């Protein structure tokens, strides 16, 4: 099968978040399984060019219809860690992708509408006819409407679209200008709420809604999040249209890059280990304490690694720090926030606890330290208010660090409570709580600390249960291939 990934990010060349890891990881898994995969990305000025091999122009004269005229583009090709990638560079006064940042501009909707239009035009003009066009998030959501309203009639009648929503909060809202620029036109036709009309703004179109209506299949990044998007406020207004198109909507759990995240080979660790050499994990615990000036004492290390974002349950992260310290545990935090007042609050906590030998808060991000924390900590806390998929808990399980999570999204699909799960005891791998409040967090975190303190052999058994799970791209890769086969023949 020939699969073309259309996305605004791909690790490690253009990465802001988890989307980039999915595009790279899924592409690699599909290639390993013998399929032809290509990725089309914008050519940003701030890409990691050191991660691209053999970058060269391969299509010099791509003219993309835009508004009343056309924009001239050059298409480059290069390998990103073995993946075949095309990069579209527009030459226009709008300077869409030469701005020193990936996102954060007032004309965001036009930047990515243009990129999507240019990608479709490139496929048409260069005779690329993939079996599947796999689009990701709102940035490339217009591909399906463009295909079925324009390009299917110009020589691309057999292409099929699978669209993945990584976070329903970000949908791509724009006025009719986008319709005229892309050549779709006919605002009165697209403003229909069963096509692309935004439910909360009658004079706006919704890119993600367009993808839901026009795509052959829509996925999101975990089964539980798919249910939440359709039946709770996590759909952010798209629940009804998802229900209408429920026959072609489902959740596929993201995979974790098991080459990058492998305690057996990870070069950033003080000692490598696996299920059969688990004692080496505690060499990393000592190394972590040495690096962060923590007391070397008989206590569990609890950690939070990730963005300090309101989505992550900041009040519960804060509470977990003080609860851990009051209940015979140490706490390590690694993370930062794009919002200054959140960073300021955690800096205040850091200064308050500065002399405490059982606590270290690292406000920022350090990839090397992250790996050592996953290896050296005993318990990982993830009290998210919502979590489409989450990779942190999968990394924790891989590294033998017990996750304590709130039962939302992908967290509920991957972590099964040691005491209350309906899974067999050897398949339980962590602790789960439901309410987004302090007593609920304490109930789960207290059980985890208690097991570590009083039943070390059972705690070790829980570690081994978690490390036996396979959250690599192996299973999701097969799920996506099943979806592709399903829509190819429709």
Helix content: 25-40%
Strand count, sense and closure of the main sheet?
9 strands, mixed
Low-confidence stretches: none
**Total beta strands:** 17
What can you tell me about this protein's structure?
The structure is a single chain. By secondary structure, the protein is of the alpha/beta class. The protein folds into 2 domains: 2-255 and 474-488, 3-Layer(aba) Sandwich (Rossmann fold), CATH 3.40.50.2000; 278-467, Rossmann fold (3-Layer(aba) Sandwich), CATH 3.40.50.2000. The protein has helices spanning 18-32, 108-125, 143-149, 177-182, 187-190, 207-214, 223-231, 239-244, 281-292, 314-326, 340-352, 367-376, 392-398, 409-414, 438-454, 456-467, 474-488; strands at 2-6, 36-42, 53-66, 69-80, 83-91, 132-136, 160-165, 173-174, 205-206, 217-220, 249-251, 301-305, 330-335, 359-363, 379-382, 402-406, 431-433.
Descriptive tags:
490 residues; alpha/beta; Rossmann fold; nine-stranded mixed β-sheet; six-stranded parallel β-sheet; 20% strand
Could you outline the blueprint of secondary structure elements for this entry?
Elements: E1 2-6, H1 18-32, E2 36-42, E3 53-66, E4 69-80, E5 83-91, H2 108-125, E6 132-136, H3 143-149, E7 160-165, E8 173-174, H4 177-182, H5 187-190, E9 205-206, H6 207-214, E10 217-220, H7 223-231, H8 239-244, E11 249-251, H9 281-292, E12 301-305, H10 314-326, E13 330-335, H11 340-352, E14 359-363, H12 367-376, E15 379-382, H13 392-398, E16 402-406, H14 409-414, E17 431-433, H15 438-454, H16 456-467, H17 474-488
Parallel strand pairs: 1-2, 1-6, 2-5, 6-7, 7-10, 10-11, 12-13, 12-15, 13-14, 15-16, 16-17
Antiparallel strand pairs: 3-4, 4-5, 8-9
Helix pairs in contact: 3-6, 9-12, 10-15, 15-16
């Amino acid at each position: 099968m020939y699969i073309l990934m259309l996305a605004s990010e791909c690790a490690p060349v253009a990465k802001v978040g988890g989307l980039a890891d999915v595009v790279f990881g899924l592409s690699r898994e599909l290639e390993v399984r013998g399929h032809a995969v290509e990725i089309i990305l914008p050519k940003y000025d701030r890409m990691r060019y050191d991660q691209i091999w053999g970058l060269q122009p391969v299509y010099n004269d791509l003219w993309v219809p835009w508004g009343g005229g056309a924009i001239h583009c050059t298409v480059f090709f290069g390998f990103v860690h073995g993946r075949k990638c095309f990069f579209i560079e527009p030459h226009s006064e709008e300077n869409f992708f030469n701005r020193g940042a990936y996102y954060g501009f007032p004309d965001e909707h036009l930047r990515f509408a243009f990129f999507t239009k240019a990608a479709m035009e490139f496929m048409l003009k260069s005779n690329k006819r993939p079996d599947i066009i796999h689009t990701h998030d709102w940035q490339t959501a217009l591909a399906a409407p463009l295909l079925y309203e324009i390009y299917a009639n110009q020589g691309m009648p057999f292409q099929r679209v699978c669209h993945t929503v990584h976070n329903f909060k970000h949908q791509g809202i724009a006025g009719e200008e986008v319709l005229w620029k892309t050549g779709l036109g006919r605002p009165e036709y697209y403003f229909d709420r069963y096509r692309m009309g935004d439910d909360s703004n009658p004079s706006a179109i919704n890119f993600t809604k367009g993808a839901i209506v026009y795509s052959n299949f829509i996925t999101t990044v975990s089964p539980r999040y798919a249910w939440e998007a359709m039946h709770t406020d996590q759909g952010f207004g798209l629940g009804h249209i998802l229900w209408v198109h429920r026959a072609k909507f489902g959740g596929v759990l993201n995979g974790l890059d098991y080459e990058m995240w492998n305690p057996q080979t990870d070069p950033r660790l003080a000692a490598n280990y696996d299920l059969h050499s688990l004692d080496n994990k505690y060499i990393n615990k000592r190394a972590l304490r040495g690096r962060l000036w923590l007391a070397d004492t008989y206590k569990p290390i609890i950690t939070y690694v990730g963005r300090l974002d309101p989505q992550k349950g900041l009040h519960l992260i804060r509470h977990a720090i003080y609860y851990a310290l009051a209940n015979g545990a140490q706490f390590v935090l690694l993370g930062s926030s794009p919002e200054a007042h959140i960073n300021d609050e955690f800096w205040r906590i850091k200064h308050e606890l500065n002399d405490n030998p059982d606590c270290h808060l690292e406000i920022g991000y350090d990839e090397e330290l992250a790996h050592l924390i996953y290896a050296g900590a005993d318990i990982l806390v993830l009290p998210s208010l919502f979590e489409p998929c989450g990779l942190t808990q999968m990394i924790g399980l891989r590294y033998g660090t017990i996750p304590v999570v709130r039962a939302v999204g992908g967290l509920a699909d991957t972590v099964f409570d040691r005491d209350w799960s309906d899974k067999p005891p050897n398949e339980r791998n962590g602790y789960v709580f439901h309410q987004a409040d302090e007593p609920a967090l304490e109930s789960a975190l207290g059980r985890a600390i208690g097991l570590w303190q009083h039943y070390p052999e059972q705690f070790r058994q829980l570690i081994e249960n978690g490390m036996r799970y396979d959250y690599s791209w192996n299973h999701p890769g097969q799920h996506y291939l099943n979806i592709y086969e399903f829509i190819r023949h429709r």
